[in-house]
Amino acid sequence: MDYIAFCKNYFTVTNLPVNLVNDDGVLYSSLGDLLGIPASNPIGLYPSEYNPEFRAQDPDIVYGSVRIEATGDYIMLGPAFSFTPDEELIRRYMHECASPFHLREEIAEALCSIPLLSQTQFCRHLVLIHQCVNGKLISVSELMMQKSEYHFRREERHMEAITENLEQERLHKNIRPEQEIYAAIRQGNPETLKDTLLSLSTGIYDGKLAQTPLRQIKNLFISTATKATTLGAIPGGMDSERAYQLMDLYIQECEKMQSIDTIQALQYTMLMDLCQKTGEYKVPLGISSEVNDCINFIRSRVNSAINVEDVAEHIHRSVSYTTKKFKSELGFTMGAFITRCKLEEAKSLLAYSDKSLAEISSYLCFSNQAHFQNLFKKHYDVTPMKYRRKHHVLHAPQE
User: Fold this and answer.
1) pLDDT of res. 41
2) Is the pLDDT of residue 174 over 60?
3) By C-alpha distance, which of 315, 302, 386 is closest to 351?
4) With 386 labelled, which of 21, 124, 290, 304 sits at a CA distance of 20 to 30 A?
5) Least confident range of 36-40, 95-99, 263-267
């Protein structure tokens, strides 16, 4: 096989940088060829018992390698990133490769054009290359569980860093305030959460999560959003699918931001939003697992024509047993709860979307728009349109 041609074609199809190297140096470099600079191998070679394997010298820049068993040469894949390279990451990459500074703009443009990949996605590329050049299969999970020399060196660096931090008393602060934040979300208590956040003299977490301030605050945001969802909102009774989707949307919004101040403001908004929504979905303490399953089933299907029979079938019980148990533990009928969940969803759609009343009524599977409007007025003592005019955050359409 013409391995240089293979590397060229792989780069053309995937836009992932590919190098072909051996013990004497670099035989081909896709980035070097693209930029018209001498080929370089930024991470070097070292003997390894694994083929293929991860190779990296920086936690934010990921590489991989596949040894071609027929020749002993290596196909080096990368760099690859899980987020768009920022100024600091580009600088570190250029330092590793000893890249000429006058080509900085061209190199930055090339790096930013590389498709963003998770570790799992990156490993799938290594698995495919290994199969193509060596005719062998390896699972992604097996590849990700490797303990190569690089991993041992990384653990050694981690231990050295931890020891140095302890000696220099670079310690994390008391975790109690953080626990209080997630407890307030779990309880659905916005006032307690607000007081806790305002009492913090610094951020929620003061450890080092990245090399640059912007990436640090974004990583912190992701960590906080994850814990607020899994330790606060979901245990507090919020439907898990809705909670995870809300978390995803906030993280996506954060990734687009380029200002530390705006990200910090968004984090405050996210925490308060999760807390308020958890309060709206709060489930009384002491309910049985069966009733809790009924509640989650109903909440995740507000946009379907769900009825009592569907819920009973979900928990594999009779309709009479299910309705009686639901009423005895919660104090209201299942039908009333289904209606309440749909109307709460309608409030969100009225406030945060431009859907018409007819579209909302149809989406939530009310029998007709008039029925929806009458139920809404009965429950909230205000018509849907008056509610929208008061709470809508977008430009409301004319009905």
Assistant:
1) 55
2) no
3) 386
4) 304
5) 36-40
29, 19 in Cβ contact below 8 A? yes
Give one word for 313, left, alpha or beta, with left for phi > 0 and alpha for psi -120 to 50: alpha
Q: What is the pLDDT of residues 255-286, one digit of tens each?
A: 999 898 999 899 999 999 999 888 877 666 67
Place of tokens 């498709």: 115
Quick one: three-class SS letters along the chain? CCHHHHHHHHHHHHCCCEEEEECCEEEEEHHHHHHCCCCCCCCCCCCCCCCCEEEEEECCEEEEEEECCCCCCEEEEEEECCCCCCHHHHHHHHHHHCCCHHHHHHHHHHHHCCCCCCHHHHHHHHHHHHHHHHCCCCCHHHHHCCCCHHHHHHHHHHHHHHHHHHHCCCCCCCCHHHHHHHHHHHHCCHHHHHHHHHHCCCCCCCCCCCCCHHHHHHHHHHHHHHHHHHHHHCCCCCCHHHHHHHHHHHHHHHHHCCCHHHHHHHHHHHHHHHHHHHHHCCCCCCCCHHHHHHHHHHHCCCCCCCCHHHHHHHCCCCHHHHHHHHHHHHCCCHHHHHHHHHHHHHHHHHHHCCCCHHHHHHHCCCCCHHHHHHHHHHHHCCCHHHHHHHHCCCCCCCC
Q: For 395, what's the count of Cα atoms within 13 Å in the CB-facing half-sphere?
A: 0
Nearest to 54 by CA among 73, 78, 84: 78
Structure tokens at 347: 């409030």
Cβ 60 vs Cβ 212: under 8 Å: no
> Which tokens hold the place of 77?
């894949």
Q: How far apart are CA 285 and CA 237, in angstroms?
A: 10
